[in-house]
Design brief:
The complex is a heterodimer of chains A (172) and B (214).
Chain A lengths: L3 H14 L8 H11 L5 H11 L10 H39 L3 H29 L3 H16 L4 H15 L1
Chain B lengths: L50 H13 L5 H13 L4 H44 L3 H29 L5 H13 L5 H15 L15
Helix pairs in contact in B: 2-3, 5-6
Classes of the chains: A mainly alpha (172), B mainly alpha (214).
């Protein structure tokens, strides 16, 4: 139970960092959930995130699992509410004010400015994630293969992830 | 949600979300189609996570007729300009448009509950059996594939939304701030975001990287 306030704090904070997608918050998520609060290990975080890519809905629902590990069913619920609450409220309010904001000249500047930053954060998250998942030539080959296939061919990435699981199970 | 449809990219300058045109957003998740390029829909299939958005559009515009395409694109522009996941932001905005606060809550609950319950269960199974050698080996493969997936998303988003010559500099600065200088994501976001926003301040024309527009 003592973990509940920390869960709310951590996930509410992470929520505000998800500019351009959930991966932007990953480096911070690693520091807070693994190094500060020890709710799970880095390999566990990497595994949950990977599996979460195959779940329906937003690809960050793995936070429910982190909440559950830290503080049971209540932890899972609070983690999810804290993660979607602050940005949800902001979106709700901005949505209602949008007609006024749409003619605000700085709106476009902010949009233009945040576009490269959000891609930078996505890459930074990816490199942090790769430190826990690309550990040798074998995993590097799978990562590079997945990237090249996705850029070259139209294929459902779930199939590639499934293929990687089968390769992993038999080769590693 | 993992749905992936790739289109030839074509840049649009200025506002990243064109609006006010009747548009065809194409496929639903799981039904891929051959690439016919028409400008606006590319914003809606940003990536793997963006598959949810294509799914939302199919449900909200095509099947239910709750929104027209113009309203959908407008709400998507708001979703993409704010922190939060695109799909959950969309659910909140559409819910509010249809039924006020109750609609927003219903929208986000409907979007998150199935995946949340599933991952809750997956988390418990993983905690019990995740250290099984077979599971560890399979997960090692899955995690490696996820890196390829995220990089592919970054490449596609980059092609789509990096319009200006200065953009790569902002991307690299952000990456270095987080990964090399070990600044918090918040610091990098605010600092580089502020500089980039000022760089693109109103009334200043910035050169676009024309050579990338093929």
């Amino acid at each position: 139970m003592k973990e509940l306030p920390a869960l709310v704090r951590v996930f509410a904070y992470l929520s505000l960092l998800t500019v351009g997608g959930g991966m932007a918050a990953f480096p911070e998520m690693k520091i807070l959930t693994v190094e500060v609060h020890h709710w799970l290990t880095f390999p566990q975080l990497v595994h949950l995130y990977s599996v979460g890519q195959m779940a329906p809905g937003p690809n960050m629902m793995m936070i429910a699992a982190i909440g559950e590990w830290a503080a049971g069913v209540l932890g899972a619920m609070l983690a999810v509410i804290a993660f979607f609450g602050p940005t949800g409220l902001l979106t709700f309010l901005v949505g209602r004010l949008w007609n006024k904001l749409s003619t605000w000249p700085w709106r476009k500047s902010i949009q233009e400015g945040l576009a490269p930053v959000s891609i930078g954060l996505l890459l930074a998250g990816c490199f942090t994630f790769a430190r826990g998942s690309v550990t040798g030539l074998d995993t590097a080959a799978i990562a590079a293969g997945t990237l090249l296939i996705l850029l070259r061919y139209k294929i459902n990435p779930a199939l590639l992830v499934l293929a990687a699981a089968i390769i992993g199970a038999f080769a590693f | 949600m993992l749905t992936y449809t790739r289109r030839p990219t074509k840049k649009t300058h200025g506002d990243r979300i064109p609006s006010g045109r009747p548009v065809d957003f194409g496929s639903t998740p799981g039904r891929r189609q051959t690439g016919v390029d028409s400008a606006p829909h590319k914003h809606l299939r940003t990536s793997f996570g963006g598959g949810v958005v294509a799914y939302l559009r199919n449900g909200l515009v095509t099947k239910r007729g709750w929104l027209d395409d113009r309203a959908f694109v407008e709400l998507l522009a708001i979703s993409q300009s704010l922190p939060g996941l695109n799909s959950t932001n969309m659910a909140i905005l559409v819910g509010d448009r249809l039924r006020g606060i109750a609609g927003s809550i219903a929208g986000i609950a409907g979007l998150c509950l199935p995946g949340g319950l599933l991952m809750y269960a997956v988390g418990m199974v993983y905690r019990e059996h995740g250290d099984h050698p077979f599971a560890t080996a399979a997960l090692k493969g899955v995690a490696a594939a996820a890196v390829g997936l995220i990089l592919a998303t970054a490449v596609q988003l980059g092609k789509k939304s990096l319009d200006h010559k200065a953009d790569p500099l902002f991307v690299v600065t952000t990456v270095l701030a987080v990964n090399r200088l070990h600044q918090s994501v918040l610091t990098a976001l605010v600092a580089v975001g502020l500089i980039a926003t000022l760089y693109y301040r109103p009334g200043v024309m910035r050169s676009k990287s024309e050579e990338a527009h093929t």
